[in-house]
């Protein structure tokens, strides 16, 4: 996919700056980002969730995308912690039908996909002590 031809936007850009669903989504991302440090192969993660690995050119360590509705794709963009910045996980959206979606639906599906990602982390790291959030799924 030629991502330079696609516009990637946040939930706040879809719903507005005071989006309660963006806040809900931020809490979910914050709670799960540490666990995603254990992803060793983004291609396998993408396959596990029924998506695809992407290179967005945003300086990410890895990113995967998944079509969540016809014409709407969610991009999970992950950066590992380094000496300067903490771990970062964000979600961006694209698609011709994105403006027709409700923020509540987008946030709900993204959270479900994040939960499935935690299952991947747990299943691919059987002998590792993982963050507690991995064992709640």
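Q: What amino acid sequence fits the structure above?
A:
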């Amino acid at each position: 996919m030629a991502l330079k031809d696609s516009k990637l936007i946040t939930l706040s850009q879809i719903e507005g700056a005071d989006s309660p669903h963006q806040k809900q989504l931020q809490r979910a991302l914050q709670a799960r980002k540490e666990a995603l440090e254990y992803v060793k192969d983004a291609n396998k993660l993408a396959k596990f969730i029924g998506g695809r690995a992407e290179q967005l050119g945003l300086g990410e360590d890895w990113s995967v995308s998944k079509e969540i509705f016809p014409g709407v794709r969610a991009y999970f963009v992950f950066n590992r912690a380094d000496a300067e910045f903490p771990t970062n996980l964000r979600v961006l959206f694209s698609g011709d039908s994105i403006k027709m979606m409700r923020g509540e639906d987008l946030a709900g599906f993204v959270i479900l996909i994040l939960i499935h990602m935690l299952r991947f982390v747990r299943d691919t790291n059987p002998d590792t002590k993982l963050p507690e959030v991995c064992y709640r799924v």
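Q: And what stands out in the fold?
A: DSSP finds four helices and four strands in the chain.
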